[in-house]
Structures are given as structure tokens and as C-alpha cells.
Amino acid sequence: MELPRKYCRFYFMTLRGCERAKCWFWHVPEEGDEKVCMDILRTYTSTKEPGLLKRAVQIFVKYYREVTPGVDFSSQVLNDLLISLLKNCLLWEVFKILNVTVRINALPAVDVLLKVFEHVASLNIRDAVPTLISTFRKLIDAGMLLQLEHFDCIIKFLHQLQVSSQEINTVLNIKSRYVFKELFYDYICLVPSSGSIFIHLLYFLVFWKQVCLYLPLAFLQHCKEKSDWTKLGALYVNARTGCEHFYDLQKLSLCIAEILTRDSETDRPGVPFCDFADAVMKNSQHNEADRIIIGRIGISVMYSYHKVLQWVKGRKVLDKLHELQIHFTVLKGLIGAEGSASRCQIVNKAAEIFLKTGSLDGAIWVLRESEWTTSEPLWPCDKVDILSRHNLLSTLVQKYLTKSLYREAFEVLQNLPGFQNNSDTVDVSQYSCLFNMLINACFESKNLGVSSSAVDFMLSKNMAIDFSLLRGLITALGRSSLWSKARTYYKSALSLGCYPPLQGNLHHKRLMIPSYLSEVEMLLAIEIFLVSNASDIRSPMGTSQSLQIILKRCEDQTAQSKSDYQVAVERLILAARLSDPKLFLKHMTMNVNMEEVYSLELTSALKWVQENMKWAGKVWLF
Questions:
Q1: H-state helical runs in 191-271
Q2: Residue 581 carries which DSSP code?
Q3: Residue 29 DSSP label
Q4: Domain named Protein TOPAZ1: which ranges (predicted)?
């Protein structure tokens, strides 16, 4: 540094400083040499040497004890010096500097103040808290400009220090006074210097309205710091009655939603939203607007818990909405992504939370409540939402099948994306495997009702049915004497190609029955054979040629043993006996393919036609 001759070079330019008992040279810059003072402070700060940093504090304090900042004063030098002092853990020197800045009205940057709080909190210097808060109050009174988030940050650091509630309240009071002062200053600036009393009154009313809007927001923060969620609910009800415009209510609700969603960032027990909702409903006198706001806040809180996988807390939010009979599935959230989320996505999140907490009933309740909606003009959703719904419902089906709750599983399957809404543009043929899985599970449990309903649904949607399952259903229905249903499905199975084309006709009077058919399927094939030849059976001239039934072996001879074929013969005889009236078969011969050939006794065939042709003609003539 270049110093004027009157300054002590030992003091300013050596690490040890001046050791003279009485020095004739200056140890403090003279008034008017502010530029020299700033150069000295800048140099000492750059060295990062604790001894020189302390000397810089002495120079700053002594110089500005006598003079006020001039044109050469550098706020950057001041901020850099304070940061260097903090880095060297010279906290009390920082307080000395800050007290001087308050007196000379040359305040440091807000970021520097926040770093002071952060430094004290990170090192847990609780002894410094009283001095820190006192200095903070002085800085605010001197005119330091803060935003509300700066106050929140300071309060966060104080909580980290675990200071007393009294000290927290001190900062909250400073915050309230600060905001009120800012509002009043705006009012003074707005009021014209001249004007009627009416004009002044009008401006005052505008000012007072701003105050009334702010005060609830300030108290909201107070409730947050105290974790008093019941008081938060009561405060909302009181503040809501004073909100003349929707915008004010929306702003108030957004603040509450942000406070309640922050709970997802903590591990503390309990769910603040539940206490808040109870308090609102207790004091709101069943106001419908309050129910909507609670529902929308609840959605936002649910999303916040879902995001961090806090399933139990998310479940408590949903249970509370259900308890209060708030139909949240027709609402949207207030903040974040959920504010623009589709109805499909909101329902998906809620149902997933119920599933993660082991509640199938809760998941199905949410879906039913939403009427299984996916995409609507007012609630459009994207492909990701549709895929999530598909995966969700597939999981539900698996869980219901595990618990043998087949009717519930079928309800879920009927509401897969693509069935309820044509705009989903989903290929429903992909669901065939899930439906076939349900039908198979129903067979194993002998639940013909659900399996029949599932087959009806699949046929109506042109979905591919497993032929073995369809044949099994036809057989099970026949064995349960549900012949009407069995005939309907057999007719559908024929049209789908489940069975080989019937070879019985008026000219050949011969029916080829595959030996792998069950007795029920064989009887249904015989019924078609009888209806097709009904005219000849009734005619006296048609009795000259017998009606033949050939029990056809499987094309792959290795797949059917002699005993298997013999069992098939017994099934054919049983099929004739199951008929009402009974049919009688007469063994004729065995053809070159080693297949049994039977003739159908015409008297029994005629009796069957006479008694059944009225309904059979309607069923089998196609």
C-alpha cells in the first residue's frame, strides 16, 4: 500500500504492528482519507490473516466513530470483510462491525446477515443468540429491507439452534412490525398531498384492507412455528369471512396449502392436515366453499406425501376426506403439479396410497367414487396417466384373484382403460389374458356366475377367449343343468371356430363327433344334428335311411390311447341318456379308421323332435 507519510508504517504494513509505547504517527486514517481507509480494509481482507482481520475491525470501528460514510465508502469492502471474519470464526468482531453500520446507516447486504445466522446455527453458538437477535432488530429498525422468505430462513436457523419460544416470538413480532411498516409507507406514498377528506379516507381504506389481508398471513406463519394446526383451522375460518374477493381467499388457501405440504419434509408423527380440516369443519357451519378448499388442500397434501413415499400419512389424509364426506375426486389440487393434474392422475395416486397401505376397499372406493373416469373433455389426461391406470387396475385384479374375490375382480376388469371411454384409444384386445385368468380362477372355484358374465363381456367386445376355457364353461353349465346358457355359448363357440364344422346334413344323415368332446358338448352336437334332419325324421319316407353318429378318433393317434377312446364311447352313451327325452344309440360297426359307428334309434329321435322342436328350431337353425 502507498500511505501518506503521516501514517505509521509499522502499524499498517507489518504483521506484528507498532510496538512503540507512544507513537507520533497516525494509527487511524484521518477524516477525509476514506479512500485510504477502504484500501487498507480491502488489503487486510484479502490476506485472510486473523490478526490483520482483527486490526481491520479496529480501524473500521475507530474511523467511523468520528466520521460518516462518504463517496469513497465501498459496500463491497464491508461485505467482504464481514464474510472473511465469519470464515475465520471471528463472530464477536462481526457484531462490532454490524453495530457501527447501524449507527452510520451503511447496512450490509441481506445475504451477509443470513450467513451470520447460518454460521451461528451451524456451530450451535447458543450464547450468541441474544446478541444476534438484538443486532437483527437494530438492522431492521435502521432500514434493512427483507423479503418474507428471508424471515422464514432466519426462523429456520433459530429452530435449528433450538432457541426458546420467547426468542422465536421476538423475531415473529419484528416480522409483523416490519410488514406493517412497509404497508403504511406505501399508503403514505400513495396519498396525494392535497385532496378532500373523502380521497384521504378512500386511500386509508385501501391501506387497511392490505393490513387485514396481511395479518392472517402473518398469523399463519405463527401457527406453523407453533405447530398449532387447530388454531390454523380456526384462523382460516375467521380470515375467510373477511375475504371479499375470490383472489384473497385463493391467496390465503395457497399459503395454508404450502404450510401443510411442508410436513412431508419432516419425520414428525401426526398429520397436520387432519387437525386443520377438523377445526375448519367444526367452525365453518357446513360451508360448501370450505369443503371445496379442504378437498383441494387435501389433494396437494396427499401429493406431497405420495412424492416422498409416506404412504401411512397419505392414507390418513384420504381417510379424513372420506370421514368428512368431501368428494375430492371431482376437485384439483392448489399448488404444484397437482394444480393442473388430470382427474385420472389424482384418482391413481389416491388408489395407489390405499393399495400401499393394504386397503383394497379404499382403492376400489376411490375408483367407484370417480366413476372409473380416465379422460374427459374437462379432465384430459395423457398416455402416462392411462398407463398408470392400466397398471393400477392390473394389480388390483391380481390381489382380488388371490383373495378369491372374483366379482370384484370382474368389476375392475370391465373398467380398464378403453372400455368406458372411446377417447382412450386403447387396444382392448390386450386384456384377453387378464379375462382368461379370471375365468380360469372361477372354474377352479366352480363360480359359474362370474365366469359366464366374463365370457358375455368378452364376446360383446370381440375379445379372444381361450377355447379350452370356453369349452370348460359349456360343459360346467350343462352338468349344472343350465342348458340354455350352455347352448348359447356352444353356438358362439361354433361361430368362433372352437369346434370343427358339423358334417351332419339332410343328404348324408351322418354326424362326426370328435372323441375329445365332453358328454355335454356331444349332446349339443346331437341336438343340432336332430334339428337339421327334423324334416326327414318326421316324414314316413325319411325312415328308410338311418341316422349315423361316428365317434371320430383324434387325428394324432399317439395322443389318444385305447382306454381314452373307450372313455369317449362311454361319454357318447351318457350324452344320449342326458337328453330329454332320452335318445337310444345302436352300435352298428367299426369303420376302416377303427372308429365306432352308431345309429340313432328313429323312434326316440322322433319323440325328441316332437317335444323339443319348438324351442330347438329357434336355437339351432342358424
A1: 197-226, 229-241, 246-261
A2: S
A3: P
A4: 220-394
